[in-house]
Amino acid sequence: MDTTWVLVANAERARCFQRDAASHALTELIDFVHPQAHLGGEAQAGGALTGAAGKGHGRTGHAGTQFEPQTPAQAKERDSFARQLADYLNEAVAAKRCTGLVLIASSPMLGELRPALSTATQKVVQRSVASDLTRYQGPELKKRVDDALQLPD
């Protein structure tokens, strides 16, 4: 039986789901949180609501040049988290718990994650989409995953 997993990730959080072949319903398997990611200077979701006004960042995670000196620390943390996620996916593919994989992640995370995947895992990747869907839940998440999978290659 084909078992497709969908990984939704950014530098701070990743959620792995099993996607039902018929209904496309998503069943969450695991939720990873990487708290060190925001210590490197990345804006947290909702940062604009927690007294960050005037700092030049908010929900998008975009910041002014004030964060440029911290970029190497951010990249190191993102790489560490990507390796943790890749290890989980590599083990699942090796154990044949999933036969198909969809990666939906922020562009920087996708860039770190892909090279960390084993050859066997890379072979089962059905699609990679650069998009951050980590803040969505329930029916809205399902709709956005479905929409992302309808995009042309």
List key phrases describing it.
5 strands, 153 residues, 4 helices, 5-stranded mixed β-sheet, Nucleotidyltransferase, domain 5, alpha/beta, globular, 22% strand
What is the number of beta strands? 5
Poorly predicted parts: 39-60, 63-68
- On the 0 to 100 scale, the average pLDDT is 80
Enumerate how many helices there are, as a single number.
Answer: 4
List the helices and strands and how they pair.
Layout: E1 4-9, E2 13-19, E3 26-33, H1 71-94, E4 100-105, H2 107-116, H3 119-124, E5 125-130, H4 138-150
Parallel strand pairs: 1-4, 4-5
Antiparallel strand pairs: 1-2, 2-3
Helix pairs in contact: 1-2
Explained architecture:
The chain is globular. It starts with a strand and ends with a helix. About 35% of the residues lie in helices and about 20% in strands. The chain has a single domain, classed as 2-Layer Sandwich (Nucleotidyltransferase, domain 5). The chain has helices at about 70-95, 105-115, 120-125, 140-150; strands at about 5-10, 15-20, 25-35, 100-105, 125-130. The chain is an alpha/beta fold. It has a five-stranded mixed β-sheet. Strand 2 (about 15-20) and strand 3 form a beta hairpin. Helix 1 (about 70-95) crosses helix 2 (about 105-115).
Brief write-up:
The protein has helices at residues 71-94, 107-116, 119-124, 138-150, and strands at residues 4-9, 13-19, 26-33, 100-105, 125-130. By secondary structure, it is an alpha/beta fold. It has one domain (4-150): eRF1 domain 2 (Nucleotidyltransferase, domain 5, 2-Layer Sandwich), CATH 3.30.420.
